[in-house]
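Render S41 family peptidase in 3D.
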Amino acid sequence: MSSKLKNLGLIGFGMFAGVAASLQYSALAQKNVPASLPLEKLSEFSEVFGMIKSDYVEPVDDEKLLSEAISGMVSSLDPHSAYLDKKAFKELKEGTEGKFVGLGIEVAMEDGYVKIVSPIEDSPAFRAGLQPGDLITRIDSVPIKGLSIDDAVKKMRGEPGTKIVLTIARKSEDKPIVVNLVRELIKQHSVKSKMVEPGYAWLRISQFQEPTVDELAKKIQALYAQDPQLKGLVLDLRNDPGGVLPGAVGVSAAFLPKDVPVVSTNGQVEDSKAIYYAKREFYGARAGNDPLTKLPLAIKSVPLVVLINTGSASASEIVAGALQDYKRATILGTRSFGKGSVQTVHQISEDTGIKITTARYYTPNGRAIQAKGIMPDLYVEETENGDGFNSFRSREVDLDKHLKNDKEAEKAVDQEKSRIDELEEEQRLVALAKKSKPLEFGSKEDFQLRQALNHLKGLPVKVAIAPEDKTPEQAVKVLPATKKTKSDLKKKQ
């Protein structure tokens, strides 16, 4: 495996129909194993293997049986550990480079169906109007309920130019939606930007990839070329599922003082215990190349707001957590996904590997994000009338076998009351969704972006009470204007 891949850290969640996330690459080293293996269980395994070979209704290939056994063993650990066969291993590496063949959707499992977490901008899925929260119930007219997410994703993969038909269940629609798509090679640009108002810019990162830091530097330079006296910047990480660890460190370093700690990791083995700093060697893809050295000095102090939501995970949470700890930015939006773990891909043959969780990560102040997420400084819902379906999206804590937060006990919830409350709220939101169109981030209709701009200008911000803190009599409130200057922000660093 190339040296580039050996040090490539990925920290995303979910899986793309054409790209996977959440790994570090490493050649498989010889590990110390326990002196006494469970011989009785190994004997049982051998016996079951023999029974299948001799008694099953039709012959079964040895390699298939052993691969499935490895897959089951690894996937039983947590939602983000998996066995990577030849195809999955190849697609995973391609995905980190920002290109892959597929439909352009990030997916997760919900109630036995494949749930769309987010369509990739300018992909076949995006152009077809697929939306976050849509459930894929059939692929090419074949029901998929009960399939593993890996198997479902494999069915959506294929060669460029080949056709596929998805059947979609959408909460705002009474009947299934049938969508015809054509697979294509997707070259995803992870960073986009624009001046939203004179003096105020919007910078969006849709996923953290190998080219992200270079792309970010170019976009920032272009923004300052348009307006050298930039008054405020909105960094949009909503629905960003994560990606490569160097990307998260580099994006944080663009806004933070030089050489400060950005994130730390801790796990069982010594290699998993590390601190990543805002230094070139922790985010530069090539020796001697530091794309951040060309940035204007003003980027270190320009007033900054970071937008997050339930779809912001891992690398997004690392950036938001670091900027929040150093008080470099105001975090605005809703609670993030809560994936605070790092996975490592060990190559076990020339073209296969295993992806296993090897560490938890922590913000500069030592906060554990796992199963908790980042709580915004200003809780602002997705729309003026409520948070849309963002409230009902699964988070890390909702996933089966999720890794526990090692610093905080998870709160018990009154499940029955919670279920009734959610049903009532969902009915209200379904009725609301039928009257509204899908949100386009960065548009004039983007309510959270408007509130971020209000904050940067010192105008009132319409905040809400977080769902876990609400009582029936509480409602949305307006936060009084607080004028912040560049000098105020410098003092906080």
